[in-house]
Automatic annotation (TrEMBL), chain A:
PANTHER family: TWO-COMPONENT RESPONSE REGULATOR, TWO-COMPONENT RESPONSE REGULATOR ARR5. Keywords: Nucleus, Phosphoprotein, Transcription, Transcription regulation, Two-component regulatory system. Residues 48-175 form the Response regulatory domain. PROSITE patterns: RESPONSE_REGULATORY (PS50110). InterPro entries: ARR-like, CheY-like_superfamily, Sig_transdc_resp-reg_receiver. This is Two-component response regulator ARR5. The modification 4-aspartylphosphate is found at residue 108. It is found in: Nucleus. Pfam families: Response_reg.
UniProtKB/TrEMBL annotation, chain B:
Coiled coil: none annotated. Keywords: Cytokinin signaling pathway, Phosphoprotein, Two-component regulatory system. It holds the Pfam family Hpt. This is Histidine-containing phosphotransfer protein. It comes from the Eukaryota. Functions as a two-component phosphorelay mediators between cytokinin sensor histidine kinases and response regulators (B-type ARRs). Plays an important role in propagating cytokinin signal transduction. The modification Phosphohistidine is found at residue 74. Its main location: cytoplasm. The gene is LOC104765475. It is found in: Cytoplasm, Cytosol; Nucleus. The keyword Isomerase does not apply. It comes from Camelina sativa (False flax).
Amino acid sequence: MQYQISSTFSSNPQSLFSLVDMAEVLRPEMLDISNDTSSLASSQELLHVLAVDDSMVDRKFIERLLRVSSCKVTVVDSATRALQYLGLDGENGSVGFEDLKINLIMTDYSMPGMTGYELLKKIKESSIFREIPVVIMSSENILPRIDRCLEEGAEDFLLKPVKLADVKRLRDSLMKAEERAFKNLMHKRELEANDIYSQLKRAKI
Amino acid sequence: MQRQVALIKQSLFDQGYLDEQFMELEELQDDANPNFVEEVSALYFKDSARLINNIDQALERGSFDFNRLDSYMHQFKGSSTSIGASKVKAECTKFREYCRAGNAEGCLRTFQQLKKEHSTLRKKLEHYFQLARQAGPKETARRPK
């Protein structure tokens, strides 16, 4: 029998069930912490990628690459618009943007106005979004530029034209990271369940 | 008909008008998106027409703002690369070299050549896509042999 852990435990688990029900539910062998993470994709949302590029052609191209790789895509045409989308443009503060789920940002380096590098810096300065991996794309293979971006915390630096293989590699490594986070969360909940069960047993329910 | 389409495509590659990037674009086509390459191509020619216009105007003014010209050409080269427009891309590179050398004469000459290549490619691709549509959707999604 498989139990939905997330619906069973709230911040105050004792309130949801009678203690007898609780003891039954929490018997460790009743909890089927599935090791099958191939269900991850169906139980989790698709990876959501924010792509930033001032070139119409490149926007269409990167969008297609990402869709073919089973990602949800939002494309914007400038760093300024990217900041607006993330709520980092100073207009409303980050109020209301905490729920915005972005898994990856891919940005062109050379853009008029704000460059991809400057966008990278702004994202890394943000308490909400600094953990989001940022990938820089550039048509120019300039080593100091690459170094600068990586030093500023870029996840990766891709030479344009971006290949489908590049996108798939990024997606796979992100999925693995999400999988690890998911597994850690499930493990943590299993430990919590064990703990509560032991307590109830000691209380001789 | 389909064989004709395949031959035309092959010759575009053989003559250097298109490079592997065009094949990458074709790989992204599927039954749900059978016209992706044609759509990208249309977008490219619309965008590059605008750039050509801007550069024409800048050159006509006579004042050679090499930084601005180089900036236009950077965009032009970028989108030409993304679609696999090999010969156009080569002319873009040449133009940028002349910009950096501050060689106005070279820029003008190269730009004429670039416009020619651009126009030739557009005609060839329009012809190719038209035939491909007539031949049936499957042909465009396949790599050349």
